[in-house]
Amino acid sequence: MKCQVYIKDGRIFAGFPGSSLIFDEIEYSLGTGATDFSMFPEKLARDIFEPVREWFLHSVQDRQTNEVLFEELKEVVVHHSKMNVYFNFYLESYTMFLLGMRMQKPEMTDWLKGFLFVGTSINGLDFSDFDSTSQWAVETFIADMKKRQALLKEDLDAITADSGEFEGFNLMQRLYLISLQGRNYLSGEFKITLKPDYLPMPKDDMEKIKSTLLENKVDVVEMVEVKNLDDLLNFEMYHTLKANLLIRKCKHCGEYFVVMGRTDTEYCDRIPEEETKPCSIIGATRNYWDSKIGDPVYAEFQQAYKRNHSRRRVGKMTQNEFYEWSEEARKKRTECDAGLLTVDEYRAWLGNKR
Q: Which residues pair with 248 in a beta bridge?
């Protein structure tokens, strides 16, 4: 699956004009495609692959034509194409695998060998057994994705580590050293051309081309043709580090992210599995509570807050009374922090016992 990419204003634009299924352009901040792929959840991948597989099996059972099957699978791929550019390679490849299996294409084996990571065995597959082979493909593609993720995380560990064998080296030097150890960031076949960043351009009418460039404010950019997932990853990692973008491990979820805005940011903006809020909110809340450990003023407030919250719950205090009390209690707490009230005076106002 080939794509064409260019970088503009700190963002990567990836288009898939040669793809069989994806025709849209995907846009994302430089570095975020790679870091988001490094933690793309297995569960999310399964939640996408499995319905595609079930739908494919039903379509085969209903004897739909290859043309109908192609068009409907295309809709599925395009629907999920904005999630992550690297997962797109897996989703498109899995979909093409299903189509190839349906059409009994003998070149499927060689195609799989070219896409899957080194070490994946595909011997003995029965391409006429749609059920078991399509399930094998789900497990194989997910396992393959996890292998690439694990290696990418190893590289990110080495690139961002404060100590270790690469201590004292800058980011580009670290990428070079990783490449010398066999990770191949030095490789990749890239065809570079100058192209407009506006797709519906005329091809032969020079006057029309000139007017289109001016009317649509089209920029001519360095367009890079990328032939596979690994080359795109190499391209993004190189330009991310070349731009000196800061990559950091989130202190809540432990996954890598590109720092946007303040350089002291320690939490990403993703919502972890089984959470309802992003790490940035969870982390800020945790930092606030940690800062209050051992604070006598805050301890007095918490004691009174819990007491009145219980009173409100059993009907001894109305919601409005509880709200007015909590607002006043916070004002008094601020005064106490500022030294306008002593802790004893604040305790007495709250009605707490020693």
A: 257
pLDDT of residue 256: 95
Residue 152, C-beta contacts closer than 8 angstroms, at least 6 positions apart? 34, 37, 38, 233
Note whether residue 336 is domain-resident.
Answer: yes
Reported for 240-248, long-range contacts at CB under 8 A and 24+ positions apart, including other chains, are 240/30, 240/31, 240/34, 241/159, 241/171, 241/172, 241/174, 241/175, 242/172, 243/10, 243/30, 243/31, 244/171, 245/30, 245/31, 247/31, 247/35, 247/156, 247/159, 247/160, 248/160
Say how far apart CA 45 and CA 141 lie, in whole Å: 9
Q: How confident is the model at residue 96 (pLDDT cuts 50, 70, 90)?
A: confident
**Is 273 domain-assigned?**
no
Q: Which domain holds residue 342?
A: 292-350
pLDDT band at 129 (very low <50, low <70, confident <90, very high): confident
Q: Percent of the chain having pLDDT more than 70? A: 93
The domain boundary, picked from 159, 182, 204, lies at: 159
Q: Looking at 159, 193, 221, which one is the last position of a domain?
A: 159
Distances (CA, A) of 113 to 1, 109, 137, 199, 310: 14, 6, 13, 33, 64
Domains of the chain: total: 2
- Whether 154 and 297 share a structural domain: no
pTM value > 0.90: no
> DSSP state, 21?
S
Read off the pLDDT of residues 152-207 as tens digits, 9 standing for 90 and up.
999 999 999 988 888 889 998 999 898 888 777 766 677 888 777 776 677 778 88
